[in-house]
Task: structure prediction
Amino acid sequence: QVRLVESGGGLAQAGGSLRLSCAASGRTFSSHPAAWFRQGPGSEREFVASLSWDGGATYYADSVNDRFIISRDNARNAVYLQMTKLRPEDTGVYYCAARVGEWTEYNQRFSAASYAYWGRGTQVTVSS
Result:
């Protein structure tokens, strides 16, 4: 079992920055891929970014590419999302997710269904 707890959300102005953290506990989190998803008001949960167990491979949604950076510190059992150039459309609840085992198909990097463990989320609100 893996327990994930997000932090770092809050209110930011458009063009500003926030850094989200995800603290993991439980089974060997550092051996598995992780990801961030978000859910805006009245929207479905959507993929934001994911990375491999060692952080060597990263993937981003087109909407956040060149603005957000996902990273991890396996010694601290943590995953981060550095968000810059924030836009009002980035508003939503941001969820950390972890997968059990390596990706076996390419689409699993982006699919919420392929991640078994989820945090409760942290709210990010970007004002214009």
